[in-house]
Design brief:
This protein is α/β, with parallel strands linked by helices. It is built from 11 helices and 9 strands. Helix 6 links the parallel strand 2 and strand 3.
Length: about 260
């Protein structure tokens, strides 16, 4: 997402430049309304299948025998990859439609409907790791969510998280000529229109600056051990040659590995 990269990746991400539309909460982030279209796009596109998911798996490392919670698991692609690597995985999501697709993919798996930021249906000190893949940036307040994730982690456990890169989001707003409304150092809400498989949905997201992310993590009792801005998976060079040739490195997401102290 440097310069016009956000527009160049819109066919892969389903995203367009942020709109000024004001919508009521029930009308946004309704994954049930386009669960199948989103899942189909997510399986093969550049930024999910060949950038974000490989980066999350690389940061997780050897997970054989580890008990992992997939927070906001969606239709289960990361869940499946972790399970294939020998992890014992549980998952939750707020979208019943996405969880139905996850059940089709995963069979008899521990999947539950729950909201990140609300009390979670798991006991204290249950998991070795939590993965939070592109979910925190839907929340205005990270405090309750991080407190719950810290609660269900064993002492010394890891939270592995990916979020929209704050510098990339700021550059995108500047490109759209809205830097006065969306200042980097403010925590601000904005909407995007995603179109996938002929279906359109409005998504409400929250930008927060890097220092606010770090303060939220450390305030919840986490110690940052890794901050990553990775390269795409090597396979992307053959599958998306024009995009990768133009921008072999790009700002898109920011990745953290955090240890529960």
């Amino acid at each position: 997402m440097i310069s016009n990269e956000h527009e160049e990746h819109s066919s892969s991400t389903g995203r367009t430049l942020p709109s000024a539309v004001s919508v009521d909460p029930p009308q946004v982030n309704d994954y049930d309304s386009f669960a199948e279209a989103y899942t189909a796009e997510n399986e093969t596109n550049l930024i999910n299948a060949y950038y974000e998911r490989p980066a999350m798996l690389a940061l997780a490392g050897d997970v054989a025998g580890r008990r992992i919670l997939d927070a906001g698991c969606g239709s289960g692609p990361l869940f499946a990859a972790l399970r294939d690597r020998g992890a014992v995985v549980s998952g939750f999501d707020a979208s019943a439609g996405m969880l139905e697709l996850a059940r089709r993919r995963l069979g008899d798996a521990d999947l539950r409907v729950a909201d990140l930021g609300s009390p979670l249906p798991y006991a204290d000190d249950t998991f070795d790791d939590v993965v939070a893949s592109l979910v925190l940036h839907y929340l205005q307040d990270w405090g309750p969510a991080l407190a719950e994730l810290r609660r269900v982690l064993k002492p010394g456990g890891r939270l592995i998280a990916s979020v929209d890169h704050p510098f990339a989001i700021n550059l995108m707003h500047r490109q759209a000529g809205r830097e006065a409304e969306y200042k980097y150092f403010d925590t601000t809400n904005w909407t995007e229109e995603w179109t996938m498989g002929g279906q359109t949905a409005l998504m409400s997201l929250w930008h927060r600056p890097l220092h606010a992310m770090i303060e939220a993590f450390t305030g919840a009792g986490f110690r940052i051990t890794v901050i990553s801005e990775p390269e795409p998976d090597p396979a992307a060079r053959e599958l998306f040659p024009e995009v990768i040739a133009a921008k072999p490195r790009f700002l898109c997401f920011l990745f953290f590995v955090l240890q529960a102290d």
